[in-house]
């Protein structure tokens, strides 16, 4: 059962985001990007208040994803990314993105905190950050 509402076009949009943000990170990396995106829709907290849909999350500005902000969000989603997007919308979770609202790729190691958010883990080159339960109970 879906954890966020998503029409077919929303799934394709999320799949494009997975490809644009994490194609080089493989299936696991793309699932984690999807987790962060779904968490932003579900959380209704901090930078993501009133983000209630996949399109709102994908195109959030400021505070959104680099792919949509910097112009490499142009490739069509392939069936493999569409399948991954469906899995995420249906609730599949991957650590360290399970409750993460942010990730980024630093030039060095992962800082213990990023914009006052705690490091929860790393996957390949990306560091994942979570809010506190008090600040954002909707993501837990």
What would your notes on this structure say?
The chain contains 5 helices and 4 strands, in the order αααααββββ. 38% of the residues lie in helices and 12% in strands. It is an alpha+beta fold. α1 crosses α2 (26-43), α1 packs across α5 and α2 (26-43) crosses α5 (79-89). It has helices at residues 8-22, 26-43, 54-58, 66-69, 79-89, and strands at 102-104, 113-114, 117-123, 126-130. β3 (117-123) and β4 form a beta hairpin. It is globular and about 35 Å long. Strands 1-4-3-2 form a 4-stranded antiparallel β-sheet, with helices on one face.
Largest sheet: 4 strands, antiparallel
Strand order of the largest sheet: 1-4-3-2
Query: Taking all residues together, what is the mean pLDDT?
Result: 95
Order of helices and strands: HHHHHEEEE
Shape: globular
Could you name the ranges where pLDDT drops below 50 across 5 or more consecutive residues? Answer: none
- What percentage of the residues does DSSP assign to strands (E)? 5-15%
Measured between the Cα atoms of the first and last residue, the distance is 17 Å
